[in-house]
Amino acid sequence: MKRSFPALVLAALVAFAAPAHAKPLSGTVSTDGSTSMEKVIGSLGEAFENEHRKVKFTYNPTGSGAGIAAVKEGRCDIGLASRALKEKEKSSGLKATVLAYDGIALIVNPKNPVKDLSLADIAKIYTGEVANWKEVGGQDSAIVLIGREAGSGTRDGFESVTKTKDACKYRQELTSTGDVITTVSQNPAAIGYASLASVKKSVRALTVDGVAPSEESVKDGSYKVQRPFVLVTVEGKELAPAAKGFFDYITSPAASRIISAAGAVAAH
Description:
Shape: elongated
CATH superfamily of the largest domain: Periplasmic binding protein-like II
CATH class of the largest domain: Alpha Beta
Helix content: 25-40%
Number of domains: 2
Distance between the termini: 26 Å
Number of strands: 12
């Protein structure tokens, strides 16, 4: 798997986070789902592999809806969703455990002069009521709305917070966080949303009602556009030893530093 941490930094994190009493484990841990969770789950998987050399960790970035389906159908050990489970998903025998909380950043091209939008402005923009940047203090150009595909946890979280469910007038509906960031970075008139943990320097995150998205503002609740990162398992189905060891490790306080370093706020 791709290495995301410099070796020395990772070693230090593992030394701090790994339980001293950990039992020898072997086998595989397969995860599937949210593309927004890539940095968080990848960092945790890397740390766990470094502690348990006979364990192979895998992550399949298919999107929240696909990850939920994968764990339900037995195609992975742990599903990953960047939204809460729906009632019908819970009633089908799935269980959700919140791993962390993540801000959903509203992103624009660095050339866009707009710095701040209210939550009400964002809803009006995405439903088409506000269609030109000049209406919110920007240049005279049509706003290009970029979002995620149906089934995306990021989209579900964004539309839930902004109360725009099934009302957004997207120009493009893209299948990954990376695609949204790339598209916005290439179009000065575009606006999109992406996991705070994934935002790159090629785009600029707006403040919302004057509050910048950050670990601190997500943690204290002052940044309103946020959602949970959720681990999905099958209720009553025991995980294999390696998968259970991984699950217990990442939901323990010991893993909080790695989660924080990956840009999210640990729930435990």
